From TrEMBL:
<feature type="transmembrane region" description="Helical">
    <location>
        <begin position="386"/>
        <end position="405"/>
    </location>
</feature>
<dbReference type="InterPro" id="IPR003439">
    <property type="entry name" value="ABC_transporter-like_ATP-bd"/>
</dbReference>
<dbReference type="Pfam" id="PF00664">
    <property type="entry name" value="ABC_membrane"/>
</dbReference>
<comment type="similarity">
    <text>Belongs to the ABC transporter superfamily. ABCC family. Conjugate transporter (TC 3.A.1.208) subfamily.</text>
</comment>
<dbReference type="InterPro" id="IPR050173">
    <property type="entry name" value="ABC_transporter_C-like"/>
</dbReference>
<feature type="transmembrane region" description="Helical">
    <location>
        <begin position="148"/>
        <end position="169"/>
    </location>
</feature>
<feature type="transmembrane region" description="Helical">
    <location>
        <begin position="261"/>
        <end position="282"/>
    </location>
</feature>
<keyword id="KW-0067">ATP-binding</keyword>
<keyword id="KW-1133">Transmembrane helix</keyword>
<feature type="transmembrane region" description="Helical">
    <location>
        <begin position="976"/>
        <end position="996"/>
    </location>
</feature>
<dbReference type="InterPro" id="IPR017871">
    <property type="entry name" value="ABC_transporter-like_CS"/>
</dbReference>
<feature type="transmembrane region" description="Helical">
    <location>
        <begin position="288"/>
        <end position="307"/>
    </location>
</feature>
<dbReference type="InterPro" id="IPR036640">
    <property type="entry name" value="ABC1_TM_sf"/>
</dbReference>
<feature type="transmembrane region" description="Helical">
    <location>
        <begin position="881"/>
        <end position="900"/>
    </location>
</feature>
<protein>
    <recommendedName>
        <fullName>ABC-type xenobiotic transporter</fullName>
        <ecNumber>7.6.2.2</ecNumber>
    </recommendedName>
</protein>
<feature type="transmembrane region" description="Helical">
    <location>
        <begin position="784"/>
        <end position="813"/>
    </location>
</feature>
<feature type="domain" description="ABC transmembrane type-1">
    <location>
        <begin position="748"/>
        <end position="991"/>
    </location>
</feature>
Amino acid sequence: MVDAHYIITNHVQLTVQEYADIISLLASICLLGLSIRGKTGIAFSISDDITEPLLNGNNEKLSEVKRDSPYGKATLIQLVTFSWLNPLIEFGFRKPLDQDEVPDVDIKDSAGFLSKDFDQCLKYVKERDGTETPSIHKAIYNFARKKAAINALFAITSAGTSYVGPYLISYFVDFLNEKKFRSLESGYLLALGFLGAKLVETITQSQWTFGAFQLGLRLRAALISQIYKKGLILSSQSRQSRTSGEIINCMSVDVQRITDIIWYLNTIWMLPVQISLAIYILHMNLGMGALVALAATLTVMAFNIPLTRIQKGYQTKIMEAKDDRMKTTSEVLRNMKILKLQAWDSHYFQKLVSLRKTEQNWLWKSLKLTVLTAFIFWGSPTFISVVTFGGCVWMGIPLTAGRVLSALATFRMLQDPIFSLPDLLNVMAQGKVSVDRISSYLQEDEVKSDAIEFVPNDRTELHVEIDGGKFSWDMESRNPTLDHIQLKVKRGMKVAICGTVGSGKSSLLSCILGEMQKFSGTVKISGSKAYVPQSPWILSGNIRENILFGKPYESGKYDRTIEACALIKDFELFAAGDLTEIGERGINMSGGQKQRIQIARAVYQDADIYLLDDPFSAVDAHTGTQLFQVMQNGRVAQAGTFEELLKQNIGFEVLVGAHSQALESVLTVESSSRTSDYAAVENETQTETIVNEEFLHTKQDSEHNLCVEITEKEGRLVQDEEREKGSIGKEVYMSYLTIVKGGALVPIILLAQSSFQVLQIASNYWMAWACPTGDDEPVAGMHFILLVYTLLTVGSAFCVLLRASLVTIAGLLTSEKLFSNMLNSILRAPMVFFDSTPTGRILNRASTDQSVLDLEMANSLGWCAFSIIQLLGTIAVMSQVAWEVLVIFIPVTAICIWYQRYYIPTARESARLAGIQRAPILHHFAESLSGAATIRAFDQQERFTNANLCLIDNHSRPYFHNVSAMEWLSFRLNQLSYFVFAFSLVLLVTLPEGIISPSKHKIRYAEHLPSVLRNITCTFPGRKKVGVVGRTGSGKSTLIQAIFRIVEPREGSIIIDNVDISKIGLHDLRSRLSIIPQDPTMFEGTVRGNLDPLEQYSDAEIWEALDKCQLGDILRQKPDKLESTVVENGENWSVGQRQLFCLGRALLKKSTILVLDEATASVDSATDGVIQKIISQEFKDRTVVTIAHRIHTVIDSDLVLVLSDGKNTSH
């Protein structure tokens, strides 16, 4: 960088060594990235048997976790360019992607790997700190630190290289202004610096952006798996202290906020780099004016902090209002049938509308503040630039075009850090709260693993033994729920536990399962368990999956199970039999059917111990030979056989009598309708008759048994969520844009944004044009220039305010209209819609999707339109500066459009899949929470945990590849844009200057005289040597006088570098042209006065020019040096020396165009040769027009113009 700075500032030409150094630098950058990654991606295939695993079991285990991931197999170049995604992009372009067509994530991004990794981090923190409750904050730090450090390195590099452009702008502007005497190599070096910095910036930016998404995905998967595993082992007390909604919010909202921190985490490292570099560049260009810029920047940042706090308060109120609305919405959806039966739907409709109005009020306040924030965001460069330039004018710091353009680019770059700080503080505060919430949840009490002692079957004949048991649901309670429990159950024994409500029957089963907190005593279990809870717990899925519950399907055993549980006739009623899908919470099953399904689940497990919590409504008459226990006040009040307890007359007979009376009354009422049923089963035992009658009854009284009506789609009541495929139709956009006032606000918004763009371009152009270049004077006073700039920029800022206000108004009114339509549709839908649509799907529309409409949709569409307008403005500016760029811009635009169409199908479908796969994670978690006791009883924690990991991966797969696809497109579009950018710079560097184009030029010296030049039309290309020859009187000298406007044309024009010379001032024209006349002229005075009469150049520059024209040594021998005397007409100098002095004037002036008017006609051949040699060396990059009679004078010219009688005969 030091060498590059030296080369640029001192205009040194590049050597072969410098070019080699540049190539070596690029190679070193690649090697640096390779060393950071730690691998090359090159795989060596070794077929040696030594590398084969010794144990097949381990090999099989490894093959289970190995995933086919293109990302995992990518090479370094593929990782940098994201070309590993090419096959998926191409596949998605050919057909819409389905979930099973999305590749797996890499093993390091899989939920199973990440869950184990986070467990290791927790274990490490636990051992290091010597605590039983490791800090989640420290575990997250250890989990993410390596990847976060790599991302930070990329982010800092990206931030640093992004300021190379503003740093080089002033140098580039200086080069363009001094291009006439600067070598092209320095211009190419500047262009290479711009391009190299942009390449490094885009590579590092894409890598840290992708890395942040990837780390967020990893942290999200790890935290969700931890929250899920914790939910399966929460103690009863901990479970009661937290609602299901609160726990699910930890998994959805809090985890999302923590992953948001990962994105903003890099802002911590980038902010100081960005601000420091910005102030350095400003100080380099504006001196002490940088301090004014720093003060203005800090003022804007400080002003944003209270706005962020207010916005945070509004967001809290919005979330509270949304929670109230969603709570009522959820309640309405759960009880929709009651609302319709009671005709209360209108009342609750108004209630929801009222809650939505409260939410809308807070939304409107928040969005008004967002409008103000947008105004500040786009107005901050205006404010900072006006204050800074005003400070520079006040302090007398000169403002040149290069300095102004560099400062403006820097002010624009400062927008991001200015607004990143408040967002960073806000996200960090929210993330801290979320981490604390998750930490609190993960540190809740768990079910004690030592609450039950498991004894092998061959060591005892007892399956259940409780000795001196004292249990409680609340450890802080002084009164235990169960006390003095003594229970021994032998193998094969049936035990019935009876008691009044609240006597502790279900609690006794819970203590056997290890669900209760144990104060004292022992609980020993021998054999496997199966549990049937009092409230049926049915999983979403088909009936067979609920019965098998993780066990392999055995047809004989399965048939015996469903026959024993009287499910055969139920299956006959279902369209798909036992493959019928069960709706959410078993909505399409009766209570009896759900109970029998979970009984069948327990039976199929073939367990040693069955714990049934009130599974039947009728009593088995044959239990009289078995042991009974009577619970009373949490204790075993009575124990014995059926007959023994009846004879004791201490309470059991009361329970039996009450139940017998109830059963007798029911049977009496229904005896007439069941005569045929009794006859059909009269040969069966009494027990089978009672049980079958009860099952038949529960089957017939189902209120929601819709399976009889389902004849399509394999008997599925609840269908998969519909997913649109293909592009989004124009009708969708048009319907959204025209909901409010028929779309009347849209053209006003576009006009406001277009006005903003025009005023922005005008303000920048004004400063670049009005401010001087080099030592020139400004076109007007600096106060006037600053006033015009302020008016233009303030006008553009108010255009932004108008645009942001209209977008906010239109967006909020549109979302409100769509919400009202949705609410009307939902509350007027028939009941079959609610029976077949999961509540979560409807709630997702009313919460997540509605939030997108409220806060994001309008801005997203607006940004799309605004970006197009900004692009058009950029094209317009570039076409004015260098229209040749359009030659490359048109094909590049076509390539961009093709890339977009090639990319969108894959990105769109993967985004849809990711959205669809998010809901099953929460749904599965909610189901697992409600059935956690059953899952633990069946020892199914591992299976359910693995299912959760699979669901996480199902979401991670499309999400990961969607993010990758965005970076894939971004990388390619950036490269194309930088290619156009580099092409534009090269054009500006190599664009020839000094193009002279006379067009139909006619000149006469007087009205009565004939034309000397007649319709001269030709073009002298820039940076070429053009010879003009012709006979005496052919018009050669007149053409030169026309170029200098010594003689004004009668018709036609002369265009120099796209400027009509007749429309500019004579001084502006002649001061930019150089001429060596035929008769060398010198004025009385000194040598210095003759070379630099305006005193514009230093002594060193004059000596350099004298050395080049071979007069330096002659003057050094004279005592007065540059002050040597020149007498009238320069008579004390020879004609040849006088001609060389005229050449020295041209060398000092460094004009783009040099005219030689018979310059060597009066000198000898030796001096002629010297002059021609000097001209060919020093003016090789300029336009030289030579008028000569001698052939050898123009023999080396690139073009020759032949004049005859004032006409160009050949050219």
